[in-house]
């Protein structure tokens, strides 16, 4: 039976109204613009990169300071589940120029339970937004980041990070290029994401004052945008991070090996506004793309980009959810169609494809046909590409049924399903030296 399109639109409208009502309630009861916020002045100073950058290599630590975890408990040897250090480190942008990226090193209070020295996971976050207030290294210091009326964010990845810390695995969480620091976050840019994730691991091993060894085993881990970042790091590691002892990569619902397919998938869903992050990133990183993008946007499209640049994911979803990009272009064609059809942006997007380089360690990929946010076929195609290059790849294809398509419900629930169902055990097996299985 085919659902009535009118019924589907009604469901989406109702879901959006409910979400708006929840945020309105938060705005009513909030204590003020800086409720739950840490002092802004020192953090603002920390996030300003020195000009020029000091000489050094990718992964070198530019500066560091202790970071208080809002969700932690003081203990005899520090805090549980980890002692945190905020870092700024050297990395490389998408076009090959050096840049400064911030992040957080989490040194577990519990011992590593496996063989050998303590391993490290370079944890790649899912989409947080494009405003600097959305950076995880800032959110770790707060329970809730809130500014009226709709700027609300919390560090939702902390549940999965704490799972790793509870096993004695060291964790470093990059903020990504341009998130927290003054530059524009280069959203879903595989080159910039790969460099940031790889260099975060290097920085965590170099910062000192932790129990994370300088040359210990490393894995990359991420879901959604983080899945794309982890997948990119996995395939860039051989050329960009050959000094790292990479044991494996978990890339869940990787967004996305094919940016055109990803832009089309976002369109009309609750996360439709995330295409604003994508276009902002392309404009900022590639000057030749700016006139192309500016040329197809109408006033509504320009308004999306201006707003998204300073928003976190929740606010973008509430203000631009379920919008069609065809309503934001001068000729009513979608953003995806414009990016694909123009030779300038088409060439840029093609260069960011994930799957063209062989990972130097086993990879676990997860996807689902019913994922209403990240398309499954590009992930399956990447698995096939890597298999064809001789990589060890396990593809976890989840059988989740469709649930209110466009609301991101399936995309969200597949995260714990993949993590508890397979990836956590797979990660430990990788660090324990168990041969990885392959579905190639």
TrEMBL record:
SUPFAM superfamilies in UniProt: alpha/beta-Hydrolases
GO biological process: lipid catabolic process
Domain of life where this protein originates: Bacteria
Pfam families found in the cross-reference section: LIP
A GO MF label: triacylglycerol lipase activity
Alphabetical list of Gene3D superfamilies matching this protein: 1.10.260.130, alpha/beta hydrolase (3.40.50.1820)
Protein name: Lipase
Taxonomic source organism: Antrihabitans cavernicola
């Amino acid at each position: 039976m085919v659902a009535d399109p009118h019924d589907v639109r009604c469901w989406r409208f109702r879901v959006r109204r409910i979400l708006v009502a929840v945020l309105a309630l938060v705005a009513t009861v909030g204590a003020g613009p800086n409720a739950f916020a840490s002092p802004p002045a020192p953090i603002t100073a920390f996030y300003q990169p020195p000009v020029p950058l000091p000489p050094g290599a990718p992964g070198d630590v530019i500066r560091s300071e202790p970071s208080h975890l809002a969700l932690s408990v003081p203990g005899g040897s520090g805090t549980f589940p980890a002692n945190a250090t905020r870092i700024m480190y050297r990395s490389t942008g998408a076009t090959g120029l050096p840049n400064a990226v911030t992040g957080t090193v989490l040194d577990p209070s519990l011992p590593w339970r496996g063989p050998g020295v303590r391993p490290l996971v370079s944890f790649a976050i899912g989409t947080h937004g494009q405003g600097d207030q959305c950076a995880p290294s800032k959110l770790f210091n707060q329970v809730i980041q809130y500014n009226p009326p709709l700027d609300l964010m919390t560090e939702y990845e902390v549940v999965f990070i704490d799972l790793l810390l509870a096993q004695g695995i060291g964790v470093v969480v990059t903020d990504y290029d341009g998130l927290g620091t003054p530059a524009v976050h280069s959203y879903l840019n595989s080159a910039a994401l790969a460099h940031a994730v790889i260099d975060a691991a290097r920085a965590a091993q170099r910062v000192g004052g932790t129990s994370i060894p300088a040359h210990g085993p490393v894995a990359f881990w991420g879901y959604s945008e983080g899945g794309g970042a982890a997948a990119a790091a996995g395939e860039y590691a051989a050329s960009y991070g050959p000094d790292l002892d990479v044991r494996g990569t978990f890339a869940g619902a990787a967004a996305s090996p094919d940016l055109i397919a990803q832009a089309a998938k976002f369109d009309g869903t609750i996360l439709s506004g995330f295409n604003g992050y994508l276009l902002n990133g392309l404009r900022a990183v590639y000057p030749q793309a700016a006139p192309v993008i500016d040329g197809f946007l109408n006033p509504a499209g320009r308004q999306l980009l201006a707003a998204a640049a300073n928003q976190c994911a929740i606010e973008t979803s509430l203000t631009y959810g379920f919008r069609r990009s065809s309503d934001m272009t001068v000729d009513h064609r979608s953003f995806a169609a414009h990016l694909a059809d123009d030779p300038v942006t088409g060439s840029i997007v093609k260069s960011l494809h994930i799957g063209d380089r062989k990972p130097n360690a086993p990879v676990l990929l997860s996807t689902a046909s019913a994922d209403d946010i990240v398309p499954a076929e590009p992930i399956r195609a990447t698995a096939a590409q890597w298999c064809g290059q001789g990589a060890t790849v396990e593809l976890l294809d989840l059988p989740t049924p469709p649930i209110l398509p466009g609301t991101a419900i399936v995309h969200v629930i597949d995260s714990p399903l993949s993590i508890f169902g397979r990836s956590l055990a797979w990660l430990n097996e990788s660090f324990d030296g168990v041969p990885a299985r392959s579905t190639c």
